[in-house]
Specification:
This protein is α+β, with helices and mostly antiparallel strands. The protein has one domain (23-149): Immunoglobulin-like. The chain has helices spanning 2-19, 45-50, 76-81, 149-176, and strands at residues 25-27, 59-63, 71-74, 89-91, 95-99, 104-110, 121-126. The protein has a four-stranded antiparallel beta sheet. It is a lipid-anchor; GPI-anchor. Keywords: Cell membrane, Disulfide bond, Glycoprotein, GPI-anchor, Lipoprotein, Membrane, Signal. Residues 1-23 form the signal peptide. GO terms for molecular function: electron transfer activity.
Length: 177
């Protein structure tokens, strides 16, 4: 009976710990004043992004003056050419939050005139779900293939379900065993 009690407790703890592996909010560049023209190439936001692991469901947060700047989500081609004329999405509120809803690359540039050409741009590569279990592996250099459209929307409810199940198991384990 004691081994069953230990097993149930360990299972409950494992489920609770698993639930903490959910989405994170990432302040772009790691600071509130990072969305700006970089002073040099080592100050580039892509340096920060290359050292950060992004997962489906994570959120990017930009802080900036919405009166003088904006964030544009663009295609790879528009990123490379700094084309601001046809963004996928445009954000001007100064406190932008974008969900990374699929694996693969996301491209962002400044909407302020001339800022992208001076280096104010960012590429984020979101890991495919199969890489989530390997935190010590290097950040992928090539974009991962995009999962089916519906799979990203299934991840958050799955995690929420594990959180509920873990907390419920934890409560039962300590209440009755």
């Amino acid at each position: 009976m004691a081994s069953l009690r230990t097993l149930v407790r360990l299972l409950a703890i494992g489920l609770v710990l698993f639930s903490f592996c959910e989405a994170k909010e990432r302040l772009v560049g790691g600071s509130e004043d990072a969305w700006k023209i970089p002073v040099n190439s080592s100050d580039s936001l892509n340096q920060w992004a290359g050292k950060t692991r992004f997962k489906v469901g994570d959120f990017l947060i930009w802080k900036y003056d919405g009166k003088v700047d904006s964030v544009l989500q663009v295609t790879k081609e528009d990123y490379e050419s700094c084309n601001t004329s046809k963004p996928i999405k445009e954000y001007k509120d100064g406190d932008t939050k974008v969900e990374l809803d699929k694996s693969g690359p996301f491209y962002f540039i400044s909407g302020a005139d001339g800022h992208c050409q001076k280096g104010q741009k960012l590429v984020i590569v979101v890991m495919s779900e199969k890489h989530w279990d390997h935190p010590d592996s290097p950040t992928p250099t090539a974009p991962a293939p995009a999962p089916a459209k519906n799979s990203a929307s299934l991840i958050k409810p799955l995690r929420d379900g594990f959180l509920f199940l873990g907390l419920a198991s934890f409560g039962v384990a300590f209440a009755f065993f």
